[in-house]
Amino acid sequence: MKLKTLTTAMILATVPMTGAFAAALDRSGQSIAAFLQPGNYFEAGISVLDADVSGQEAGELDTRRSISDMADSYYFPNAALKLQLTDKFSFGLLYDQPFGANAEYSGNNAFVSQGTDQVLTPSSIANITQNSVSQLVQAAGASFAPALTAVTAAAPAGTPQQSLVLGALQQVAASNPIVAAGLQQLQGTQTALVNANAALGQGNTEVEVHTQNLSFVFGYQPTQNWNIYAGPVYQTVKGDLKLRGQAYSIFNGYDANFKETGDLGWLAGMAFQIPEIALKASLTYRSEIDHNASTTERLSVLNNPLAAASVTGLLNGLGVPTTYTDAMTEPGKTKITTPQSVNLDFQTGIMADTVAFANVRWVEWSNFSIRPYQFGKISEAVGQLDSVNRPDGFHVVEYDKDQWSATVGVGRKLSEQWAGNVSVGWDSGAGNPVSTLGPTEGYWNVGLGVQFSPTPATFIAGGVKYFWLGDAESQTAAQVGEDNRIVGDFSDNHAIAYGLKMGYRF
After folding, report:
1. Taken in order 298, 299, 301, 306, is the CA torsion positive or negative?
2. Is 298:261 a contact under the CB 8 Å cutoff?
3. Residue 75 in this model has a pLDDT that exceeds 80
4. End-to-end CA separation in angstroms for the chain
5. What separation in angstroms does the CA of 350 have from each of 28, 226, 277, 292, 354?
6. I need a labelling partner for 220 at 20 to 30 A (CA). Which of 185, 348, 429, 481 fits?
7. Mind giving me the DSSP string for 400-446?
8. Phi and psi dihedrals of 403, rounded to 5?
9. How would residue 105 be classed by pLDDT, with cut points 50, 70 and 90?
10. What value does the mean pLDDT take over residues 443-448?
11. CB distance 411 to 419 below 8 Å
């Protein structure tokens, strides 16, 4: 079962490719495999993901329209340079794009602005109106029944019942100041809603998040079997967010631009190997990294003076203090903490020219959340409404579970120039219901990789993976924490990932 070191490295060169569609914002898988290659080594690669994520409106929405594919295709490159400086010391420079998102809704659904969008759902408006009318009828007392009889007798056939009630209340209002004031307030509420509705956003819900990692890895090999490594990681993050459509209520028309910012974290790990039997195991920890991104925010209903006054009056009328007004004039920073993670990699020879391999990854998404400054202040006001019941506000995105993923497979040298592998992968997701900005829960996948080595020092490898994406129900930010509150149902979705990589040993 003895395998030459170079042969083993050739077989496994295709393994780290096409990590692609993982839970939450996870993308690259943050592999350390290039640093553990023997001797001096360089590689560069690219992965491309083409996903199809569609569904249907559900839950608290008043409609049940179809939602067409909202997952945009994307690509992410990676590169690595590893230098064996001495027998005992090595250095590596690893580049990847560990986290990201790329999605856009389209068509006729609650995540795309329509001419009929309202700052509250039609059912919510109907409830507010019905409650107000019921209170006014009670205030009208005994005089309401005669007024209703008179209005009904004079009304055209087929007049809606609520119109008859309002007509009777107008009759009573002439001699009842309480009813008169109540009708005036109801009319003001209706006018405020019309003004606010006219200022809602235009276009589609979109999200883009981009990150980059540059890891500086220093390794110490006390013996040929052990490798202890650590180093700093410089990471950048930037993003754009647009919320549109009836699903987001008052946030229909919210924009946020997160200016690119960078900060430092670190990694550390150790590896053990027995080259004669192609055994190699490594455990790598990566720290969380804190960012404070300068953020430009805009909410269309509050950027229009008439609509802003209407929304403020409407919320005040519902007993909600509008403390967000000062925040809308203040620039803010958004704290974004990318999560800590642990990777466990293992391989071993199982027969001549054949290795089995496995990877297990844990990412702490349960502590991840993003709350831009102005969004947070508005959410604290909106959260006091009985229909929302989130008095402390809410985050624009958050997850409630950690991600676990695993890949197992077999790689085999087919000839002096050709090698390949097959693999099966699983991802737990980061909770369900999920954010409307990424409505899938984990996956299963199968993968196939092939590698051609024109010389002992060079190779080119390609791979493909097919993903069965987990079914999920989606929530807006205001609904998170209540599993029975949803706005979308996504099922039977899939994705295909492709990867290409070239390597050189010197």
Report:
1. negative
2. no
3. yes
4. 27
5. 28, 21, 8, 48, 6
6. 348
7. SS-EEEEEEEEEEE-SSSEEEEEEEEEE--S-SSEETTS----EEEE
8. -95, 135
9. very high
10. 94
11. yes
> In one letter, which amino acid is 167?
G
151 is written with which tokens? 């209005």
- Cα gap 259→294, rounded to integer Å: 5
Tokens of 268: 């550390």
Are the C-beta atoms of residues 442 and 427 closer than 8 Å to each other?
yes
Query: Cis peptide before 433, with omega less than 30 degrees from 0?
Result: yes
Token pair belonging to 360: 């297990």
Q: What is the mean pLDDT of residues 348-356?
A: 91
The residue assigned the tokens 């990789």 is 449
Crossing angle for the helix pair 161-173 and 177-198, nearest 10 degrees? 130
Report CA 425 to chain centroid distance, whole Å: 21
pLDDT one-digit tens code per residue, 190-207: 887 888 888 899 999 999
The encoded tokens of residue 296 equal: 């430009």
Q: Look over the chain and give the mean of its residue pLDDT values, rounded to a whole number.
A: 89
Give the CA angle between residues 200, 201, 206 to the nearest 5°.
145
Q: Is the pLDDT of residue 14 over 60?
A: no
Q: What is the mean pLDDT of residues 212-220?
A: 98
Structure tokens, 480: 């998170």
- 329 sits in which H/E element: none
How far is 240 from 217, CA to CA, in rounded Å? 31
For the CA atoms of the chain, what is the radius of gyration? 29
- Is residue 7 scored above 50 in pLDDT? no
**Closest Cα to residue 244, out of 209, 201, 208?**
201
What whole-number distance in Å separates Cα of residue 403 and Cα of residue 30? 14
Q: Rounded to whole angstroms, how far apart are CA atoms 230 and 68?
A: 45
Identify the residue whose tokens are 């009985």: 386
Give me the sheet containing 472-475, strands edge to edge.
66-67, 55-57, 488-490, 472-475, 434-435
DSSP 202-243: -SB-EEEEEEEEEEEEEEE-SSSSEEEEEEEEEEEEEEEEEE
260, two tokens: 């690119």
Alpha helices in 219-331, H assignment, sequence order: 300-303, 305-317, 324-327
CB atoms within 10 A of CB 145: 12
Contact between residue 209 and residue 110 where contact means Cβ atoms under 8 Å apart: no
**Among 211, 257, 258, residue whose Cα is nearest residue 233:** 211
- In angstroms, how far is CA 496 from the centroid of its own chain? 19
Q: Cβ–Cβ contacts within 10 Å for residue 204, how many?
A: 19
